[in-house]
Amino acid sequence: MKDKLLKIIQHYGAVNQRKKLCEEFMELQDELSNVVNDRPENILTELADVMVLTLQFMAISGYSFDLLEENLKDEINYKIQRQLDRISEEE
After folding, report:
1. Model confidence over 14-66: pLDDT tens digits?
2. Rounded to an integer, what distance in angstroms lies between the CA atom of residue 58 and that of residue 44?
3. Helix and strand numbers, DSSP H then E, in the chain
């Protein structure tokens, strides 16, 4: 996967892909805020777009793809626990 992601970002360039990532974030935001036409499949599509571009930046930033899944899981688990701790403090 890393080779494919690097090929994409090297082809288009980091500056262009950064702009593309911003576009994809806006498209995801639009889908999430569209409560009238809530379509989970559209949200999933936009989430995938954001993740692919995010992974491209992780690849060029030197993250080891052998540990990428582990690193990402650790960070996600940290964020989840931190938020649960905040909720506990509020109660």
Report:
1. 999 999 999 999 999 998 888 677 777 888 999 999 989 988 988 888 776 66
2. 21
3. 4, 0
Q: What is the token pair recorded at 18?
A: 């950064």
Task: Please give the single-letter amino acid code of residue 25.
Answer: F
Looking at the fold, whether 41 and 27 belong to one and the same domain comes out as: yes
Tell me whether residue 70 is exposed, middle or buried, using C-beta atoms within 10 angstroms of its C-beta: 0 to 12, 13 to 18, 19 or more: exposed
Domain extent, residue 20, equals 2-60
* pTM (two decimals): 0.72
Do 56 and 73 fall within a single domain?
no
Q: Is there a single domain that holds both residue 69 and residue 29?
A: no
Name the percent of the chain in helix, strand, coil, to the closest 5: 85, 0, 15
Our count of domains for the chain comes to: 2
- Residue 21 tokens, joined: 């990532």
